[in-house]
Amino acid sequence: MDRNRKWVPGFGAVLLIFLSHTTSALEVPLDRKYLPQPPTITLQSPKDYIFDPRENIVIHCEAKGKPHPSFSWTRNGTHFDVEKDSKVLMKPGSGTLVIDISGEKAEAYEGTYQCTAHNEHGTAVSNSIFIRQSRSPLWSKERNEAIVVQMGVSLVLQCRPPAGLPPPVIFWMDNSESFRLPLDKRVSQALNGDLYFSNVLPEDTRNDYICYARFPHTQTIQQKQPISVTVLDNSPDGERRPGFMTPLGITSTKMVLRGETLELECIADGLPTPEISWQKDGGELPSSRMSFYNFKKTLKVSDVNEADAGDYRCTATNKLGTAQHIIKVSVKAAPFWVSAPRNLILAPNETGILTCRVNGEPKPKISWFVNGVPIENAPEDHSRKVDGDTVILSYVQTGSSAVYQCNASNEFGYLLANAFVNVLAEAPRVLTPPNRVYQVIANNPALLHCASFGSPIPTITWFKDSQTSVKNGDPYVIHENGTLEIHVAQPLHSGKYTCIASNNLGIKENHVYLEVKEPTRILKQPEYKDVHRGMSAVFECKVKHDPSLIPTVIWLKDNGELPDDERFDVDVDSLTIRDVTDEDEGTYTCIQNTTLDQDSASAMLTVVGMFPVHSRDMRWSPRNPDPPTDLELTDQTERSVQLTWTPGDEHNSPTQKFLIQYEDLLHQPGVWVNLTDAPGTSTTVQLKLSPYVYYSFRVLALNGVGYSQPSQPSSQYRTNPSAPDENPSDVQGVGTKPGNLVISWTPLTGFLANGPGLEYKVQWRQKDVDEDWSSETVANVSQFVVSGTPTYVPYEIKVQALNDYGSGPEPEVVIGYSGEDLPLSAPDSVQVMVHNSTLAEVHWEPVSFQSVRGKLQGYKVYFRRIRGLHETEDTEQQEQVLTFSGNRSEGRLPGLQPYSLYNLTIRVLNIKGEGPPSPSKTFETPEGVPGPPSFLNVVNPGLDSLTLEWGPPMNNNGRLTGYTLKYQPGRLTSFNNTNELGPVKVINFLANETTITLGNLNSSMLYKFYMSAKTIKGSGPIITEEAFTAMDTSELFYPLTQPPPSLSLRTPRFTRVQALPVSPSTSPNIFTYYLPCKTNGPSQSIVLLFSFFLCLQCLNNHCILIHLKFSFLCLQPILFSVLHSMTKINSIILTAWIEIWTDSHGNCLSPSFPSPFCACVCLAVPSRQVDIATQGWFIGLMCAIALLILVLLIVCFIKRNKGGKYPGNKEDAHQDPEIQPMKEDDGTFGEYRSMESDTEDHKPLKGSRTPSNGTVRRDESDDSLVDYGEGGDGQFNEDGSFIGQYSGKKEKDTHEGNESSEAPSPVNAMNSFV
């Protein structure tokens, strides 16, 4: 921006003008809307406006006035006829221009614009608004020579980006990385974008150093041609002292403007890499405004002022030496305001003054204008006199209202302000509501208000009871704003007060009422208590109060709420604690509240232990000490006195200390306050005293049991008054509304006043402004309001205590801020950069500091989804808000919905609230991957086919292009339902297809399906389903799983000897496989395994699998186990077999539960016919038949093995090795599963069971006899399967469960299933 431009009529910028009045300013009541008023600019665009050529240009200009002003514009100093340009629209009722540059050359509308607001009472002008188009020029074509350097030397890679508007953001990357090049103490990016290497290393070799320039307005990125760097290490450069690469030479200069940020940079070379440090010659660095960047190579000082000028020294250090460079910094200043202006309302024949006080370096030149015309060219007005920065208006007349402009400029910029002078003749009017009642407590100040309006300013007079005239003087004070103050209100001051506002145009009166109430005082205070455990404690708190005020009592324990315990009973004037415990010990405070005041008193409760009641024990038991006696005051001075006493009886417990308390009979009669402690061996203490206190002292003794009763009070000792020793604390200055500054403090309490007539001297002045302190002396209150302040400027504040005997010490200066107002401007140049389908980044031009009109809290981004791009009607969702704290210019919007239309606005935020919204910005999110299909169902299963139906996704997130179906067959491979999965087949469908029938499938086979939807962005999440094809009932024999060939040589080879099916005529749905084996030698065990399959709800592919396993030694059953997972049964087929494993010699073995092939068999059942297999009696019958078959098989087995007994004793029977846990190193069969199931590609199907921790240990197989048969109470597995306990005792690890000696029968086991 050109800082040298000066404002002239038709070529200027609005700023605040400083106006003052010879008396106080006259405020216009808000409801007097009929009063004439010259125009006032309320909203305008910033001085420098850079627009995006892809969007309309919006130049703001809003104003108010009576009548409402009309608007006109100039462009480049000449009249701009808005109506003749079809591309330009002026908003109705305002001066805001909207320029449609679509299809036009944006450059045609560049230039300087100024708005004029005019009505019959004057003309106000806006800023000169410099409109420029944002630009992101291409990099000039150049060929970069390859750079070859030796290791250790320094290197600079120049960027030299194209000059954009605004300037671009520079960063370095390479072609292989998605992030910026890492910077460190050795490698730096300078402020101008060049890349500096203090010393190069071999790893710096690369052929694609690329400098990028990002232009923030257009959101475009340009890149420089890659630079190739090769670092050789055949002749490396040795270690060397530091030297500066930038800036060059011993000294350099830097100029910075006041209020801006000073950026100083020092980059050094050297080996080893130097460290950088900074200092300011002859002064300290401003730590509160200073920060280091780029590994301390860059020093930034924010909010620069004149004190920041000077010599800044940067030092580069390594082990070989140091180098220094001095940067001489000078601070200049564009014009800035010294005092704030105000609009001026004058009555005819009054005199007023307009002041325009500014400062700057060099000193600004001040020019005056009237209604936009230079004051020397304006019509002559003899009542007006110009004197430099002041315009004096004498004896103004009706009709001389106007708007004055002040322009202050120097070579670095300018300021402009509008301020109107409104000449009115208005009769008085009292703004305070009539018949208002003011209530105060006696001995406190009372304020009776009489706010008024009139022109000339009305004179205020007061009367009491409509007769007695109230004059300034004790006890009354009449303030400039008409408020009547009574310093110390007494009951005799109660009554009716009348204020009369008068000027030469009329008189107006108003009545208010004052009621002075009696103070609330606690007459009977709670007293110290020491109570034995289990007894009751009663604290009294009786109060005296004004009859018209109803007090409420609050009790506190240790300054907190009372415990929520029914033992605490709060009455009107007492607190009772029943059944006292040690936890009840503490300080109890009684607070008596009314609507106007309160009083409080405290007492301590000490809990002591219970003592024997026998008289012979009482004489030796310790008790509370007796109170001290004979209190005497000696060595009396103004600020000290010596107190002496005689201790009482200690009662078998030595005195630990004495507590001295005092009562102030002047300020707080009846309230005893702790003053100090004295050792238990002392009888004298020197007491420090305060002035103007009527002291009375008492002493309490403390031993191991508790405190004594207080002593009798001492004689009264009065100290003389003096000036205050201290000032009020917690002084603050905070504006509560625009145009005011509320100065508050914590008043001095009690004897801290040091004397009568306590007052406060309040002083204030605007910070960094060369002006005298303003002051006001107020009564003993806690705040003072300064009105007519500019909006949100810093003030220096002091509050000093005074009394009739002098002033307190010099107070400290506190910084406060005047009131904030809502921000004036909205962020400009809002741009949205969409990163992906769910994330966007919004950029904006921050508002100017002046338009914030308060402490900047941040920016709020409001955004709302209007509709999906595939929808025809708007379906707006709830508006979302993101707040970005601080002076931000960008932010990210996460969680967006893909393929949607959004709009957003941005508001600036200060403590007062939010400013106006920025122009609405719409943007679109690109397509994303869709959500999963809404459902996937398998219907109509056949022997070799399955039909699938699915629904479209709930969220398409784009244009749906189709669906992808993947499926693969699977089969159960083991007793615990692990599975194998076959190859995957893929089918693609169009977007309008939602069903498919798959043929050529295997019968009795489990299939797993994976369905996903697609857009052009890819496939979305999958939805899965599993289903069985129907069973071919001709396949009723199932092969056993063979052991994997990978077993070690010690693992026996298993042989299948014979299979004998049970006759179908006996049980048409039961088939049995009987595998006999030879048994050679004593103590041989025989293992029988029965597997039963129940198919449940065939359409949903649920089945039930029962394994019955028996291990025999002689004739005793050892193990029995049942697993089941049950749902509604639609059909049933029951299959059973016995399986016996032998080694190569035919000897019986006890494998860890071998894994037969298992499958679910479903019979076809007509849908309209009741299937007998779904009936409970049929299920029970099938189970009974299975049990009978089991008994027959046992008998058959015994006959086949000749029924011989094996030698052995009972102990051997219970220690049968057949039921011991099997380990791999024993040479026995451990975990047995198919090799195919070990591959990573095969995952368990739905319904398979795995341990809860997801692992399987080889020495604790799921199929082991130990896990299923012995030890532990019956329990359910993760899938609901029941594992009972069956046969004899067996020692197990503690984690296997409790032992049990019960051996349930097979009948019990089957009953548990049914």
From TrEMBL:
* Annotated Basic and acidic residues bias: 1208-1226, 1233-1244, 1288-1298
Supply the Pfam families for this chain: Bravo_FIGEY (PF13882), fn3 (PF00041), I-set (PF07679), Ig_3 (PF13927)
Write down the PROSITE patterns for this protein, in alphabetical order: FN3, IG_LIKE
Signal sequence region: 1-25
Q: Where is the composition biased (Polar residues)?
A: 1300-1314
Q: Which GO terms describe its biological process?
A: axon guidance; brain development
Question: Cellular component terms, GO, for this chain's entry?
Answer: axon; plasma membrane
Q: GO molecular-function annotation terms? A: cell-cell adhesion mediator activity
Instruction: Write out the transmembrane intervals.
Output: 1177-1198
Its keywords, alphabetically, are:
Cell adhesion, Cell membrane, Disulfide bond, Glycoprotein, Immunoglobulin domain, Membrane, Repeat, Signal, Transmembrane, Transmembrane helix
Report the membrane topology from the UniProt record: Single-pass type I membrane protein
Matches recorded under Gene3D superfamilies = Immunoglobulins (2.60.40.10)
What sequence ranges are listed for the domain Fibronectin type-III? 627-722, 727-821, 826-928, 932-1033
Superkingdom of the source species: Eukaryota
Where are the residues of the annotated region Disordered?
708-733, 1206-1314
Localization, UniProt: Cell membrane
Domain Ig-like as annotated: residue spans: 39-126, 137-228, 242-330, 335-422, 428-515, 519-606
Q: What is its main location?
A: membrane
SUPFAM superfamilies attached to this UniProt entry = Fibronectin type III (SSF49265), Immunoglobulin (SSF48726)
As for family, the record states:
Belongs to the immunoglobulin superfamily. L1/neurofascin/NgCAM family.
Record-given protein name = Neuronal cell adhesion molecule a
Which species does this protein come from?
A: Sander lucioperca (Pike-perch)
* Species lineage: Eukaryota, Metazoa, Chordata, Craniata, Vertebrata
* Gene field: nrcama
